Amino acid sequence: MGPQKSETNDHVPEGELFDALSNRRRRYALEALMGTDGIELGYLAEQVAAWELEKEIAAVDSTERKRVYTSLQQSHLPRLDDAGLVRFDKRAGFVEPTPGLEECEVYLDVVRGNDIPWSEYYLGLAAVFGALAAAVAVDAYPFVLLPDIAWLAASAVTLFVSAVYHNYYATRSRLGRGETPVEMD
């Protein structure tokens, strides 16, 4: 575990951040804390156990809850506290997010399954627009069938729709915004 993080510095060193995020249980705990002023440890343990077991909270039994509670209390939350991502009051059994937790969103932008990163999508879109511009410039068939302004408008609309969807996707995918953690979607 690293040194205690300064209360005045909201920046979490990248190495500590990656170490903290390397465990799924810690990521789930952080996900549950996002957008809250804090959570009682018992509730946090129930929520994390439910996500891990892919159950409703009400279906988590006491053994499952206790196993998660113990590991959060003894290992995971102290590590997250040391990293400066949460404040964990072991005596009160209460966990609250710190401003440093907001840094996690960038690192938890998960690319799932067959998805591609947005940077690669926009790079591909630029290549398609470049090829389209070249085809229109040399009057290649079938691009001569429509006026140049129509191809420009189609490109602009495609870029606009992509940006709107990207904004929607990014907003929906932020930590603490959904019913399940980002990596479970």
Low-confidence stretches: 1-8
Number of helices: 7
Q: So what's the overall shape?
A: elongated
The ordered string of helix (H) and strand (E) elements is HHEHHEEHHH
Can you characterise this structure?
With 185 residues, this protein is mainly alpha-helical. It is built from seven helices and three strands; from the N terminus they run ααβααββααα. It has helices at 14-21, 24-33, 41-53, 62-83, 104-107, 118-137, 148-172; strands at 39-40, 86-89, 94-97. A three-stranded antiparallel sheet has the order 1-3-2. Helix 2 (24-33) packs across helix 3. The longest helix is centred in the last third of the chain and has 25 residues, at 148-172. It is elongated, with a radius of gyration of 23 Å. The chain starts with 13 loop residues before the first helix and ends in a 13-residue tail after the last helix.
